[in-house]
Amino acid sequence: MSRPENSLGNTLRAWRARITTEDVGLPATRRRRTAGLRREELASLAGISTDYLLRLEQGRALRPSRDVVASLARALRLSTNETCHFHLVAGLLPPTPQNIPHQLPPGVQRLVSRWGNIPVGVFSASWTLLTWTSMWAALLGDPSLRPPEERNLVRAVFKKPSDAGHPLFLMEQSTTEFKAALVADLRITHGAYPHDEEFRVLMGEAMSESEEFRALWSTPALGSRLGGHKRLQHPLVGEISLDNDVLKVPDHDVRIVTYTAEPGTTDEEKLEYLRIAAARTAPPAPPLSLSPTPPTPLRD
């Protein structure tokens, strides 16, 4: 019986048992006493000796190198979260993702396509708007009227827009509380993606152009809450009071931002008016492709 503290060995055996020869392109054999890959098969795929894999599984080797862990993770077809967990049980810091993902996971795409009557926008971890509903455009300004590089909330909040004709993120720029919460979230992104060059450029722009951003960034505050109850001043319906929620999808690191009104209120009536106006005049949001999301590469 394995020792209860042998987390590394127990984890390795469990993952080896769930992988089939077909999963890794090996020829299937008829008689196998145990489920999953044999120890020698996994060792061969990972480029290590069978004896060393046995010692890892038995808890006699507790500190594999980062290269060994990375090779075993690839051979075991581990997900990003599983790879991070594998590093932790091996006594190593998890690898950091190379770049911020900008792809929409299929599940989020399907949700957005079914939320046409709600102002919904989906952002990357750098707060670049990836897709939106027509109600989002009706409430906060039409992103399709801006070039892609201006569909970023950081630039919209801390830089002057190139023109005032088509405001973007119209209602998101007013309060110091919102700006502080946004910068706090950006600080988390900075820690999670230290090698993302586009994000470095974005932060450099904000630092050089906004004294307010520099002041907020220099205050090491975490945990400020995005969202909450918002009073918005809209050019068509006047003041409208809405609940603003920010939902994070951790595996893909995107933020789903929604605005909803309390049922039976004049605010709900105003949203309905905007929905009718949007259906008549607004261009459609960008099409949602249901192509699979490629994995985000990790960097040790």
Automatic annotation (TrEMBL):
Family matches, as Pfam families = HTH_31 (PF13560), MLTR_LBD (PF17765)
The record lists the organism as Streptomyces malaysiensis subsp. samsunensis
**What are the residue boundaries of the HTH cro/C1-type domain, all occurrences included?**
35-83
Q: Which one of the record's GO molecular function terms can you name?
A: DNA binding
- Give the matching SMART domains: HTH_XRE
PANTHER family cross-referenced by the UniProt entry: BLL4672 PROTEIN, BLL4672 PROTEIN-RELATED
Sorted alphabetically, which Gene3D superfamilies does this protein's record hold?
3.30.450.180, lambda repressor-like DNA-binding domains
Q: What is this protein called?
A: Helix-turn-helix transcriptional regulator
Identify the stretch(es) annotated as Disordered. 278-300
Q: Compositional bias (Pro residues) spans?
A: 283-300
